[in-house]
Write a structure and sequence with these properties.
GO terms for molecular function: carbonyl reductase (NADPH) activity. Belongs to the short-chain dehydrogenases/reductases (SDR) family. Keywords: NADP, Oxidoreductase. It comes from Pieris macdunnoughi. InterPro entries: NAD(P)-bd_dom_sf (IPR036291), SDR_fam (IPR002347). By secondary structure, the protein is α/β, with parallel strands linked by helices. The chain has a single domain, classed as NAD(P)-binding Rossmann-like Domain (Rossmann fold, 3-Layer(aba) Sandwich), CATH 3.40.50.720. Helix content is 42%, strand content 11%. It has a four-stranded parallel beta sheet with strand order 3-2-1-4, with helices on one face.
Length: 130
């Protein structure tokens, strides 16, 4: 697993951040922490660097086709593919009773219709169990 290339989406906090932390702790050499907000993603990487880890940050908004394409092209040029995709990006509304149509569409687009399926999934390298 140390030589695999994992990508964790929505990793600037919470579960995604914890997954990146654990991958780094286990000695994985290349770990991509992705987030749609560059400032928050960079701050998360700095926090992990303070613990002695070296995750890599790349901006990625799973609901934005251009962002997904840019990330896919970057990964393809650097690593030719990825070995592990942890599609953690997701959002929720705080108050279900007052959800607008627009809020509901944003949740659906982020959590279910993310464009990762088009650009990123085809970069996943398949391996056979030994």
């Amino acid at each position: 697993m140390i030589d695999k290339v994992p990508v964790v989406t929505g990793a600037n906090k919470g579960i995604g951040y914890g997954i990146v932390n654990q991958l780094c702790k286990r000695g994985v050499k290349v770990v991509y922490l992705t987030a749609r907000d560059v400032t928050k993603g960079t701050e998360s990487v700095k926090a992990l660097e303070a613990e002695g880890y070296q995750p890599l940050f790349h901006q990625l908004d799973v609901t934005n086709g251009e962002s997904v394409k840019k990330f896919a092209d970057f990964i393809k040029s650097r690593h030719s593919g990825i070995d592990i995709l942890i599609n953690n990006a997701g959002i929720a509304t705080k108050d279900i009773t007052g959800v607008s149509y627009e809020d509901a569409i944003e949740v659906i687009n982020t959590n279910f219709n993310s464009l990762l399926t088009i650009e990123i999934y085809r970069l996943i390298r398949c391996t056979q169990a030994s």
